[in-house]
Amino acid sequence: MRTGQLIERPSWLKKRLIYNGALADTRKILSEGGINTVCASSVCPNQNECFANSQATFLLLGEKCTRSCAFCNCGNSSAGLNLPYDPPDPSEPERILSAVKKLGLRYVVLTSVTRDDLADGGAGQFAATIRVVKSYSDKIKVEVLTPDFKGDERSVGTVAEAGADVFAHNIETVESLYSRVRPGADYGRSLKLLKYVKKIKPSQLTKASIMVGLGEDEVSVLRTIKDIAGTGCDILTIGQYLSPGPDNAPVAKYVTPQEFERYKEAALRTGLKHVAAGPFVRSSYLAETAYKNARKGTVRYDRS
Length: 304
Ligand code: SF4
Fold this sequence. Notes:
Blueprint (H helix, E strand, L loop, with lengths): L20 H12 L3 E2 H4 L5 H6 L4 E4 L15 H4 L12 H12 L3 E6 L10 H14 L4 E5 L7 H8 L5 E3 L9 H4 L5 H14 L4 E8 L5 H12 L5 E6 L16 H13 L4 E5 L8 H10 L4 E2 L2
Parallel strand pairs: 2-3, 3-4, 4-5, 5-6, 6-7, 7-8, 8-9
Antiparallel strand pairs: 1-2
Helix pairs in contact: 5-6, 6-7, 7-9
Iron/sulfur cluster binds next to α2 and α3.
């Protein structure tokens, strides 16, 4: 039974919708380009705002995920039998570039479903897309949010060496909830990935995100923040988990803005360069701002 539905959303989780020409244009460009977004797949609460500002996060490698994370809408459980998985589409990097041009993006965020069925986990498709965008204009900043590649350092290296400006990998939740929320993943492996990127590419900014409201306690959140900072990570985002569908984990708690503020202050004390924490914060939300602040090395209390 989906008990999370029984918790009424608090007042701070209401957002005003925006309707403008850019919103319709963004939808049209994505649809005509046959481009998937995590904005739509994850039922992101910021979709209206981001699309109205011509922002979107591109989802590479199809919509079928090889894992079944309880928080995610792309998994096997929600999509039924996902087989067969589509092979990487060689036209995808150019289709993404075409959308980047039409949307006029200066900051591009690329992510993907987890593709454990592919020998490289899809790393080659990330690298190809980064290169296509960067070869069009080196002024465009690229952020990648990757799966864990089952810890394969060659795959991580393939992406890290392709020239993105930010390498993000989400820790998602506290270690004790991994078996329930993120069963195909491993907490230590994900931390190791972030550390490895810093080791092989020290100039590349790294970024991680966690969700709260899945049933974790405050001590575990603070420990997770410390563990992420311990990898040398530059940017951290902390947001409220919102259940995307009836097959997903229910919301255990709506974290208050005051609690988010406490997490943010604790995170900034660990030396992270930029921290965004708040009910609507997502990994890619205001990603360019996070990048710029982290690049400057300035610490900023982002109240979003
Ligand atoms: S916050 Fe990220 S995932 Fe959500 S709509 Fe904006 S760009 Fe898409």
